[in-house]
C-alpha cells in the first residue's frame, strides 16, 4: 500500500511501540486535565490514586472503571475539565438500556472526532468523487453528524438523508448517483424488500459500491447477505456516544476485524465479573479511556460490549490492534431453561438458511410456568407464496439448526415478508414477556 492510501499516515502507521509511548504521554496530559473536574478529583481521592505519580500504563488500573451508571449519577457538567463557555455541542446515547447519557464537546473535540471518522472512511476508499448518503438519524444520535462532518472533510458530496422514509432514500440514491451509504444493518436488510417492491435491483439500478454498517450487533452472515444483494463492500463500524460516537474501531479493506484507533483510545479487555484483564485474545468487555477529548475525558469506561482482540499484525500495515465483531452487550444475553443465549447466535443460524427473509425476532414467554422461546422469522416472498410443504420443511430445518447452536428447542413461526415490526433505529431482537424478572 502506498502512503496515498492513508488519511493520516503519521498516526495510522505508528508501530506498536510508538503507540504505547504516545499513549503514556497523552494519558499523563489527560490525567492532568482531569484535575480540573470536580468529579475526577473526588474519584481519584476515593481510589487513593495520584495521577502525577503514574509511571506506566498499568498504574491506571488503580482507578475503578466507570460505566453508564457513573455518568447517569448526577450533573454531567461535573466531568468537564474546561469552563462551560468552551463547550460547543452536546450529544447523547440512544438510550437503548435506560436513561440516555450526555457528552459535552469543545470545538477541538469535534475536530478530533471528525478527523478519526474521516480516517476510517478514507481507509476503506472514500474519496472526493464519492456521493455519500448518510441514512443515520441526525440530531442527538452521534451516527448522523459524526459521519456527516467527516465525509465533508474528505470532500465527498454528502446527502444528509437521515433515517427512515425508505422510498425517498431509494429515490435519492438514484437521482444523485449515491456510491457510499452509512446505514444500520437491520434497516439495510429491510430496505432490500422495498427495492423489490418497487421492481428495482440495487445491483443494477444504483451506483452503490460501499456501505458502512454499525450501531447494532450483526453477524458475518448478515454482512455477506448485504454485500451480495447490493453488490457492494460493507464495512463494520463501531462506536458509542460516550467515546464521541463512530470512529472508535473500523474495518480496513481486509475486513478481518476492526482497528481500534489506539492513538486516541486506550483499550482494555476485562472480565466483566472480576474486572481483571482477560488473557490476550480472549473474549471480554471492552473498556476505553479517551486520549483525544479535552472537554469531557472518560477514564476506563465500561462499554458492556463483548469482543476479543485478534492476534497478529494486519495485512494493511496498521499496528493499531483489531477487535472481533461485537457479540452483543453483556445484558443482551438471555437465559432459557438454564442456557445462556445471545441473539447473534440465533441470527447466525437464521441468515445461513436459504429462504429466510429480512427480519426476525425472539419472543420469550412463560407457558405453564415454564420458559418458552419462540422465534418469528420472515421468509422470502417466493417461498411465502409457494407450497406449504416447502414452508414446513424450512421450519423444521430452522428448528433443527437452532437446537444445534443454542441447545434449546425453540418454537419457530414463519411469517409473511414485511409483517414484523421494522424500525428506523436499532433493531429490537428480543421481546421478553416472561413473568419473572429478565435473566432469572
Ligand atoms: P446506546 O448505548 O444507548 O445504544 P449509542 O447510540 O451510543 O447508545 O450506541 C452505542 C452502542 O451501540 C455500543 O455500545 C454497542 O453496543 C452498539 N454498537 C455500535 N456499533 C456497533 C457495531 N459495529 N457492532 C455491534 N454493536 C455496535
Ligand atoms: Zn488492517
Please tell me about this protein's structure:
The chain is globular and about 70 Å long. The protein has helices at 9-12, 16-34, 38-47, 68-72, 107-124, 142-154, 166-176, 185-197, 202-205, 220-230, 343-351, 381-384, 388-406, and strands spanning 87-92, 102-106, 131-134, 157-159, 180-183, 210-214, 233-240, 245-251, 258-260, 265-270, 284-290, 301-307, 322-323, 328-329, 334-336, 339-341, 356-367, 370-379, 411-415, 430-432. Helix 11 (343-351) packs across helix 13 (388-406). Helices cover 32% and strands 24% of the residues. The strands form five sheets. Strands 4-3-5-6-7-8-9-13 form an eight-stranded mixed beta sheet, with helices on both faces. The protein has two domains: 1-330, 3-Layer(aba) Sandwich (Rossmann fold), CATH 3.40.50.12780; 334-438, ANL, C-terminal domain (GMP Synthetase, Chain A, domain 3). It contains 13 helices and 20 strands. A hairpin with a 2-residue loop joins strand 15 and strand 16 (339-341). The chain is of the alpha/beta class and 440 residues long. The relative contact order is 0.11. The structure holds adenosine-5'-diphosphate (ADP) and zinc ion (ZN). Zinc ion binds at residues 252, 254, 259, 314, 316, 318.
